[in-house]
Specification:
Helix content: 40-55%
Number of helices: 10
Order of helices and strands: HHHHHHHHHH
Shape: globular
Distance between the termini: 69 Å
CATH architecture: Orthogonal Bundle
Number of domains: 1
CATH class: Mainly Alpha
Structural class: mainly alpha
Strand content: under 5%
CATH superfamily: Flavocytochrome C3, Chain A
């Protein structure tokens, strides 16, 4: 009786371990969390800066509305670039409409916490805090390749893409 109980427990544990996958809990499957999580800190000079306010006035903030006006809001070829993290893992309840922070800076589930994005840590040792955030998945600064994921020849509206010029149009950093 004891042996069969132990074998059963080991079998259940093995099935659970195998079903969890090789990367379970490792942070490899970062999730998109949505603009509301970024806005919590990046909406005030006193906390993390006013990046949200700059974004809110940008064309990125209204990217999905552009598709609605053109009758393309259900077209997956368009939605992938007019939303954030389309078809990728997202936190429950995350609103990913429009081109949000994570479209350029990567999914935020691993770097959004105050353990990573602490104003105090950035003030004390900016280079070390930035390194820690990047190790947690923050893409900073976004590269031209990140932008060209959408600003490319597949887009019917993009006629040439000057990375330096467009970067200035969306500048939201010091």
């Amino acid at each position: 009786m004891k042996n069969s109980t132990i074998i059963l427990m080991l079998a259940v544990a093995a099935i659970f371990a195998l079903s969890a996958g090789p990367f379970a809990g490792s942070g490899d499957a970062a999730e998109y969390v949505g603009i509301a999580k970024c806005k919590m800190c990046h909406n005030s000079k006193a906390v993390g800066g006013e990046q949200y306010k700059v974004w809110e006035k940008s064309r990125h903030a209204n990217a999905l509305n552009t598709l609605k006006k053109e009758g393309e809001s259900e077209n997956p070829k368009c939605i992938k670039c007019h939303t954030t993290g389309y078809g990728k893992p997202a936190a429950a309840g995350a609103n990913l409409a429009n081109v949000q922070c994570e479209a350029c800076h990567g999914p935020g589930s691993a770097y959004k916490s105050m353990k990573i994005m602490s104003k105090k840590a950035f003030k004390e040792d900016h280079a070390a805090a930035r390194k820690k955030a990047k190790e947690a998945g923050l893409v900073i600064p976004p590269t031209e390749d990140v932008c060209r994921g959408c600003h490319n020849e597949e887009s019917p509206k993009i006629k040439g893409f000057d990375f330096a010029a467009y970067k200035e149009k969306i500048k939201h950093w010091k």
